[in-house]
């Protein structure tokens, strides 16, 4: 009888996908990210957006920075900053050629939390969100801090609040069959990957 090796200990999905992301060669990361950028910047709704939040990729995350290269004159860009009030919410601070950066407690570069250069989350048009996994219903799994869910919790309660559009940005291997949606989860309205653009009917409104 051949001996069967015991199955490897099961890693949680979050860790598996984080490792897979971090293992991508830089050239592959760049190619796949450029494909996702192309699928998003050619969307009419994206071209109509004026105030757009991006993020600075770390540890192999898909890289949305190319969206700035396609910017229209009316478009302004913002980056997430951990709120200095330590309330696990994000501020969105203007990203232009004068923006100065520091490392936050997760060692992610972020602009200084300048209140006068920040825009309230509800006045953004599109928020391009980092993620670890997403599914066909728009459920998002992030790094586990709950920052995006807390910051956009108002989308659940405000009747006419379709704004901002939350658009997940990822590699296609991060799309999974089904994620358990938690009570506090704010679903994505859209997602984009190297494979294309996805629109979700989130059904919470
Ligand atoms: N590029 C990028 N910027 C972002 C996010 C993100 O996911 N990606 N965030 C999305 O919300 C916010 C930061 N949230 C984060 C939450 C957890 C960890 C993290 O590394 N957690 C460790 C364990 C916790 C610890 O070190 O204390 C881990 O996962 O190993 C990083 C960022 C804002 N900026
Ligand atoms: N609106 C909220 N109010 C209070 N707690 C919240 C809220 N949203 C999320 N949380 C808390 O945040 C924690 C992390 O949530 P979750 O694992 O869904 O984070 P995530 O979406 O993966 O992270 P991130 O948005 O930072 O990428 C959970 O324990 C949850 O209780």
UniProtKB/TrEMBL annotation:
Major enzyme class: ligase
Binding locations of substrate: 56, 61
Domain of life, per lineage: Bacteria
Catalytic reactions of this protein: (6S)-5-formyl-5,6,7,8-tetrahydrofolate + ATP = (6R)-5,10-methenyltetrahydrofolate + ADP + phosphate
GO molecular-function term, one example from the UniProt record: ATP binding
Matches recorded under InterPro entries: FTHF_cligase, FTHF_cligase-like_sf, NagB/RpiA_transferase-like
Pfam families: 5-FTHF_cyc-lig
EC number: 6.3.3.2
Cofactor: Mg(2+)
Coiled-coil annotated residue ranges, if any: none
Signal peptide: none
Family: Belongs to the 5-formyltetrahydrofolate cyclo-ligase family.
Keywords linked to the UniProt accession: ATP-binding, Ligase, Magnesium, Metal-binding, Nucleotide-binding
Xref: NCBIfam families: MTHFS_bact
Protein name as catalogued: 5-formyltetrahydrofolate cyclo-ligase
Record-level GO BP terms: folic acid-containing compound biosynthetic process; tetrahydrofolate interconversion
Binding positions for ATP per the UniProt entry: 10-14, 140-148
